[in-house]
């Protein structure tokens, strides 16, 4: 009895490991192999311990394990499908929210334009245009001042580089004159 058990367990574990290592390992396959191993062990312990008991236990265990594994696979597929549906619905909600926010911005901008159109006078338009011209002139002056300051900085850096080069050449000449 123990000899049959000792032989059957490694064989069953070999089947189990091959089922688990293949890419086609499903819950049904793994359940069937695991059930067969456990069924063979239980079958060898029951009755007279004959090979027939072991084979019957393996067959029953394999069948029950396969059914349980198949249920596991179905449940896993249902969960994955439900998650995919939730993700799709979430993405649709995000898209709808972004669209709604854009519509709100457009409506708010339209409301501001409508308020201005109802209340603005020719004097208001002239004042707004004068202010725009004043700000644009100030911006242009600041851009010009910035460009001029950048040009001054560039010229200073060039002069410093020329000074450094001349000092190096002068030091080299003095070294040569002193015999060094």
What's this, in brief?
This protein has 180 residues and is mostly helical. The protein contains four helices and no strands.
How would you describe this structure to a colleague?
By secondary structure, the chain is mostly helical. The protein folds into two domains: 2-85, no CATH class; 131-180. It is 91% helix and 0% strand. The protein has four helices and no strands. It has helices at residues 2-21, 27-45, 51-119, 122-177. Helix 1 (2-21) packs antiparallel against helix 2 (27-45) and helix 2 runs antiparallel to helix 3 (51-119). The radius of gyration is 43 Å and the shape is flat. It starts with a helix and ends with a helix.
SSE topology:
Blueprint: H1 2-21, H2 27-45, H3 51-119, H4 122-177
Helix pairs in contact: 1-2, 2-3
Summary keywords:
flat; 91% helix; mainly alpha; 2 domains
Query: Separation of termini?
Result: 102 Å
Mean pLDDT: 86
- Which percent bin holds the helix content? over 70%
The domain count comes to 2
> What structural class is derived from the secondary structure elements?
mainly alpha
As residue ranges, the low-confidence spans are none
> What is the H-and-E element order?
HHHH
- Percent strand equals under 5%
Shape: flat
**Structure summary, number of beta strands:** 0
How many distinct helices? 4
- Biggest beta-sheet profile: none
Using only C-alpha atoms, the radius of gyration works out to 43 Å
């Amino acid at each position: 009895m123990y000899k049959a058990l000792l032989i059957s367990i490694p064989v069953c574990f070999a089947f189990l490991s091959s089922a688990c290592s293949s890419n086609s390992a499903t819950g049904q396959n793994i359940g069937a192999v695991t059930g067969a191993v456990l069924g063979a062990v239980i079958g060898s312990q029951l009755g007279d311990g004959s090979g027939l008991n072991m084979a019957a236990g393996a067959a029953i265990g394999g069948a029950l394990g396969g059914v349980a594994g198949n249920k596991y696979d179905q449940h896993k597929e249902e969960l994955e499908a439900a998650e995919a549906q939730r993700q799709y619905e979430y993405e649709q909600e995000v898209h709808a929210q972004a669209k709604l926010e854009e519509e709100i911005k457009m409506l708010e901008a339209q409301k501001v334009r409508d308020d201005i159109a109802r209340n603005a006078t020719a004097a208001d338009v002239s004042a707004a245009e004068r202010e725009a011209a004043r700000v644009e002139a100030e911006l242009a002056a600041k851009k010009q001042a910035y460009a001029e300051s950048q040009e001054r900085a560039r010229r200073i850096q060039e002069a410093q580089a020329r000074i450094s080069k001349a000092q190096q050449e002068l030091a080299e000449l003095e070294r040569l004159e002193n015999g060094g």
